[in-house]
Amino acid sequence: MKLIAHYPDARLAQGAVDYMKAQGIHCVLKSVDGRHVEVWLKQGNVERASTLWAEFEHQPHAQKYQAASWQTGSTQKLFSYSGQNLNLIRRFSQLNWLLQAVFASSICIFASMVFGHAESVFGYLKFQLERPWTWLTPTLLHFSAIHLIFNLSWWLFLGEKISQKVGFNAVLSVYLFSGISSNLMQFWFVDANFGGLSGVVYGLLGFCWLYSHKNSLIEPLVSKPIVGFMLIWMIFGFTDMFFISMANWAHLFGLLSGMLLGLLWKSRV
Asked: Does residue 78 surpass a pLDDT of 60?
């Protein structure tokens, strides 16, 4: 799909989309707040779609747009939100093996630390330069339920976006490159007493951000408000305002490594 316009009134925009559909131009609306929308061309000629949209912007209240909505019945459902129905079990079963494996491994390791010997588990999986396989295993360590839920939620959300829109190899590359680089830098600047998937999460965010910026004609992998929130969260981490221990260098270098991959990754378009 290609982005052809933005509009501040979803109800009016839906009428234009319905009218364009009758002209053989199929578009969809995407919204994150229920009012402002993006108009994406799904099928049809780009120039023709742009011409029809320009006509709409000139006379957005023309009767033909409202009539088109009544004819298609779309007044029952004005537009599609970016979110999807939950159906969590079904959606999880449809994820690729990497997303599932990291998710399941993180939960199992967290459970073993809560109900078993936390120090032994941590000592076995923590970053150690002389054991290269531990350069990645800290991504599976989490020290609280909130820490675990926060990271796994973003892992599935961003990982699924990249997997669907860019491909499995992109998710795998971000996990390996961002995981190792973020862990290495956190160890280098601080010590080995850290863990969590957040470095990889920031790697996924950085990939989505730069890949979408580079390919501006395709639907963004992540919205600007999400990018803004995550960047502010990372900056606050360096200020110690929340009085909690955060692997700030892992966040920063995870973000940078993901941005690098997003910039260099070849587009499907």
From this structure: no
